[in-house]
Amino acid sequence: MTEFHDPVHRRLELLTSPQVAAIDKRDALVLQPIASIEQHGAHLPCSTDLLLAEATTDRALALTPASVNVWRLPAIAYGKSTEHLGYAGTITLSTETLLAVCNDVGKSVAASGFRKLAFVNGHGGQPQLLEVVARDIRERTGLQVFPLFPPRLGIPEGVVSSPEEARFGVHGGEIETSEVLAVAPHLVQTEYLVPGSTRVREIFADKVHLTLEGSLPTAWLTRDLAREGGVLGDPSLATAEKGERVLAHVTAKLAAVFAEITAFEFDR
């Protein structure tokens, strides 16, 4: 019978220095959750991305066989959230600071003898930056680095209520709110579960090539798309059951990714 990790026992920072030194580094993977602290409308906490990054990482660890050599660092709460500046509660790093922090983490992980590092990213405003810094860390330290953005693993069919919500509900909408209802329902202000701004749909309705995100993304600020409220999408459609379905789908795939990374080598 397969045994799986208890996430509590995979916290690298809870070990002593000699215990960390004793880990078999040949295939060990270090996970660095990273998120953001930013406005998510009147219904979700500013720590939404942090909550989901940690929950996704830990739920994936709980689905990872105990034979897989994977460890988790404390989450980096802050990220690059400059698109949300001007909304109360947003605390952002600059591009330069985020890159410097990640480079320093990579340098420290390598100095502890590890060979593999994965950033588990919970914020949609920084996947590209993490991809850039991952390659820099690879070149500077020799670490094999994997910038992971779990939403790219997809969602189960039939969860999103409409193609429009799937396309434009990227911040505080149906899916993100559903996930928080599944993870921390006590933090959701249910009296404010109302549709967000429709401005984003109006802006992109007749665009053939330009996209909000995806193949030909636009550099947007939240105030460009939702002048009041800061929500892109319809949280009134959210349910905890939808959130559980999304999280189960993503974390099962992420657990498989962890195993694949520990077995990965450039030189064979």
Note down, in words, how this protein is organized.
- The protein is an alpha/beta fold and 268 residues long.
- The protein has a single domain, classed as Creatininase (Rossmann fold, 3-Layer(aba) Sandwich).
- Strands 2-1-3-4 form a four-stranded parallel β-sheet, with helices on both faces.
- β1, α2 and β2 form a beta-alpha-beta unit.
- α2 crosses α6 and α6 crosses α9.
- It is globular.
- The model has no long low-confidence stretch (mean pLDDT 96).
Q: What is the terminal separation in angstroms?
A: 31 Å
CATH architecture: 3-Layer(aba) Sandwich
How are the strands of the biggest sheet laid out side by side? Answer: 2-1-3-4
Morphology: globular
Uncertain regions spanning at least 5 consecutive residues = none
Task: State the main characteristics.
268 residues, Rossmann fold, alpha/beta
Record the SSE blueprint:
Elements (H helix, E strand, L loop, with lengths): L16 H6 L6 E6 L13 H15 L7 E3 L22 H17 L4 E6 L5 H15 L2 E5 L14 H6 L5 H10 L15 H6 L17 H4 L14 H24 L5
Parallel strand pairs: 1-2, 1-3, 3-4
Helix pairs in contact: 2-6, 2-9, 3-4, 6-9
